[in-house]
Design a protein that fits this description.
globular; 69% helix; mainly alpha
């Protein structure tokens, strides 16, 4: 797929589970549930809200079940589930309060939850700087070099995939500083679902 602008770029990269992923308990709605939610949002807001309330109830039950196990290793999972509940509650409020943000969220994500990233901020900072200061081939070599040196399989794959996105960015009508800025800020995109919590 050829990406034509930054909005398409952001949407594509946010839905790429090789780069952004859900740690245990951090996914709120899977792809099938999200497709269903999108239809309900377009056709019947009351059904949309009911679906989300049902999900909140389900996740709260799961949290209670996890807490009863009294296992410290489940602490992070419980925290993720609690953050998912907050996100779901914000989505309900947003139906009337901030529908533009909610519509952007629904339009952007194939699934929804609290995202984590396989890309190190330091790598993104360095790559953004290189885009601004050097040629495309050097940027490519740098990314591939970092991928080769990476011991973690998922992080290595994320870097390899990142080159494809950087390559697409070069084809867009943006200045080199703008391209560098977009790459530097990739990890900030993962906070998009949580913005709705603060509106």
């Amino acid at each position: 797929m050829i990406l034509n602008n930054v909005d398409e770029f952001v949407k594509e990269i946010l839905n790429d589970r090789r780069i952004f992923f859900y740690s245990h308990g951090a996914e709120l709605f899977n792809k099938a549930e999200m497709d269903n939610l999108k239809k309900k949002y377009e056709n019947n807001k009351a059904d949309f809200i009911k679906k989300i309330k049902d999900k909140i109830e389900q996740v709260n039950e799961e949290i209670e079940h996890l807490k009863k196990q009294k296992n410290n290793r489940l602490k992070k999972r419980i925290e993720n589930r609690q953050r998912c509940v907050k996100l779901a509650e914000s989505m309900i409020r947003a139906v009337t309060d901030t529908s533009n943000s909610l519509e952007e969220l629904i339009e952007t994500f194939d699934d929804l939850g609290i995202l984590s990233s396989n890309l190190a901020p330091k790598h993104l900072e360095d790559i953004g700087q290189l885009i601004e200061e050097t040629e495309r081939n050097i940027v490519k070599e740098f990314i591939l070099y970092k991928a080769q040196k990476e011991g973690d399989k998922r992080k290595r794959e994320a870097l390899m995939v990142l080159w494809n996105y950087v390559d697409q960015l070069y084809g867009m009508n943006l200045s080199l500083p703008e391209k560098g800025f977009v790459i530097r800020k990739i990890n900030a995109f993962k906070l998009l679902p949580e913005v709705i919590n603060h509106e």
